[in-house]
Amino acid sequence: QVQLVESGGGLVQPGGSLNLSCTVSASIFSLNILGAVMAWYRQAPGKQRELVAAMSRGHIPNYADSVKGRFTISQDNAKNTVFLQMNSLEPEDTANYFCNIKIGLQDNWGQGTQVTVSS
């Protein structure tokens, strides 16, 4: 199993930015070679968990329609970290954000980091 630890959440005003980090206990470079899909999900109170952004080796990252043009998923192999840069935040972006890495049938989740967008 791969351990994931998210950080970077917090309270931000509408229009603000946050950069979430997901520290991975394994080599991201090696996971990419194995065909891992690295993603961020979010879950708001009373709603189902939804995919926000995902990336994998050799593919263009994909995003939920609601965050296209505002959020960017990226990774730093040297730091074994996956990022989610969130700009122009809206109150509707308020949720618990989870990092996820799927490798074949193995599904790894972090504990989540809370993002609250409010004035």
Task: Write up this protein.
The structure is a single chain. By secondary structure, the chain is mainly beta. Helices cover 5% and strands 50% of the residues. The chain contains 1 helix and 11 strands; from the N terminus they run βββαββββββββ. Strands 2, 4, 5, 6, 9, 10 and 11 form a 7-stranded mixed β-sheet that branches. β7 and β8 form a beta hairpin. The longest helix is centred in the N-terminal third of the chain and has 6 residues. The protein is globular. It starts with a strand and ends with a strand.
Mean pLDDT: 96
Give Rg in angstroms. Answer: 14 Å
Task: Please describe the biggest sheet, giving its number of strands, its sense, and whether it closes into a barrel.
Answer: 7 strands, mixed
Strand content: over 45%
Ends: how far apart? 39 Å
Level of helix content?
A: under 10%
Shape: globular
What class do helices, strands and sheet pairing give?
mainly beta
